[in-house]
Amino acid sequence: MILQKFFGWINIRFRRQDIQHIDKNKDTGAEYAAAIKKFSPMTYQNPFIMYMRPVLEQILKKRGIPCQKLELVIIDAEHDRDEDDNDIENVLYELVQQLNYLMLVTDRPEKYEDFMDMAYEENGLIVQRISKTAGKNARGNLVMDFERSTGICTENMKSGIVYLPVYKRPWEIGENLDIIVPVGYNTLVVRGIFPEDSEKGCLTDEKFVRDRKSDRLDREFRKG
Q1: How far apart are CA 61 and CA 189, in angstroms?
Q2: CA 57, 166, 82 angle in degrees (round to 5)?
Q3: CA-based diameter of the chain, in Å?
Q4: How far is residue 165's CA from residue 144's CA, in Å, rounded to a whole number?
Q5: Fewer CB atoms < 10 Å away: N or C end of the chain?
Q6: What is the pTM (predicted TM-score) of this model?
Q7: Contact indicator for 130, 105 with CB cutoff of 8 Å
């Protein structure tokens, strides 16, 4: 189990090379635009998973939602999507210390038992679960949708609810290295996320990666 999860992390690490060398020259911009043009929800790999916490912090600030009042809803991925599962785990472990409320919309609750136990034991967080058939009854003010095969969940686009489709629409890089985040059918610009060395064409903060690797391994060994 430890090795399986570690190699899953390795896959995420190397997948991030998709955004490590994006420069502001015309050739790179053309390549990125071409990749977006060929977008398909079934094959898209969101390259901004590693920056999700600062991205969400800015989104909450722009929408006037205090971090203490964040009510996060995670719509689980489909079955047999190992890379998507790694993305969800990445986000959950990155955010868990900041959460006072979390609801998982999933038909495979057993997959999250270890995380739920850890969240309660280490953070006092009681994770709520609900099936996908009852998902429209999920309460929250920020929804992260990790499904691919279904369409945009319009029921999660009610007034005041921030709905982020993780794979159903592309998350793009703007001219000034801003992140253009899809929120429902609209977009929201997030600035200042990338590290200072991004001006040299590198969008990966190596210290961030080293710290994440250390935290990840620590989690796996603590879980045994």
Answers
A1: 12
A2: 115
A3: 50
A4: 6
A5: C
A6: 0.74
A7: yes
The residue whose two tokens read 């038909």 is: 107
- The DSSP output letter for 87 is H
The tokens for 183 are 């929120």
CB 73 within 8 A of CB 103: yes
Nearest C-alpha neighbor of 75 from the set 38, 108, 49, 50: 108
Extended beta strands in 22-86, E state = 72-75
Top pLDDT among 157 and 149 is at 149
99 within 8 A of 72, measured Cβ to Cβ: yes
Q: What is the 3-state secondary structure (H, E, C) of 93-110?
A: HHHHHHCCCEEEECCCHH
Q: pLDDT tens-digit profile of 177-203?
A: 899 999 999 999 999 888 655 553 445
Q: State the residue for tokens 């190992």.
A: 82
Structural tokens at position 167 = 């794979």
Q: Per the structure block, which two tokens stand in for 59?
A: 């989104």
- Phi and psi angles of residue 121, each rounded to the nearest 5 degrees, phi first: -70, -40
Distance (Å) of CA 194 to CA 3, 20, 95, 151, 198: 30, 11, 18, 30, 6
What does the radius of gyration of the chain's CA atoms come to, in whole angstroms?
17
pLDDT tens-digit readout, 97-141? 999 999 999 999 999 999 999 999 999 999 999 999 998 889 999
